[in-house]
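Quick illustration, no need to memorize.
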Amino acid sequence: DLVLQNPQETCIIFVSVILISAFLEYVLQRVGNVDNRYARIMVNTMTQEVTIVGVLALFLMFTVSTIPKRFITPLYVALFSWANMCLFFMASFFVLIVLFQFAVANFDTAGWKNYEEGRVDSDEAAQLPFRYKIYKLLFEQYRDELERVMGIPTSTLPFYEYVGTNLRKSLVRVSDLSYRTWLSLCFVVFANLLRTKLTPWVDQSNEDHNFYNSLLFIGVVGFGNCLVFLAFFGLTQRRLLHLATGRIKVENPQTLIPFGTVKRGLEFLQMITMANNWYMTLFVTGNAKAMANLTVGWHIAVCYCAFVVPLVVFVGLLPWTYYSVALLA
């Protein structure tokens, strides 16, 4: 009846949807036809995640339209719609983060190329910053292995190109979300549930409750995830330093990656990334409103500054974390 009674509005909405669909189809076809295989992989990944969200949306529509209302309450319909929207935001954030990592990888490769072709031989390792020290020491090991053992000059396969290829392969693996990554979010959700038991919902006009509830959410979800990531980062840097300085000698440096293999280490980074995405999504769709209800100036400043800190740490350290995994790989 709604469609029959409003033919003009129906036509406008339907044509708008068709135009948007045609535009997206055109963009995906253009990107999918490029020669860069990494771009094609990203399109496939995005298509896969959008498909998951689309299936969930269709399931919601089917459930609401077919199951009698006495068996499903409006509360669960609204919460399912909210969860579906959160998954869409999380998948979108994930694609953007991986694209950003590809851009940073290209920038880093160009920077290490200039360093390797310039002053890598003249610099003293002991006087270099940590990252340059690691790179120089591993470059020397790589050159020695390539020239002395295999009889191949370094100019044939530069170290920056070798590591850059490993880095792009790692990002390709990361872009393909596994079911274990999705399942790992359950632990973060349950942690947030336990957090809500400490600060149960009350009237939103309660200033102190909103403040402490926001801080507890940031502390448990945001800083909890940040500490886990920092533990992974610190362990990776420690083992990388020991490998570069010769304290550890192994036939396969991949075993030095936390969890023993490249695949497991990258899956763990996937989990951390998705947990951060859930943290941002939950803030945008819920906790931001609670912070907006705060009236005391320093409460607002503390909450927003605390919210940003884990994200800044994660975004700032993630590129070098991936590069470290590529060096060990």
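The chain is about 80% helix and 0% strand.
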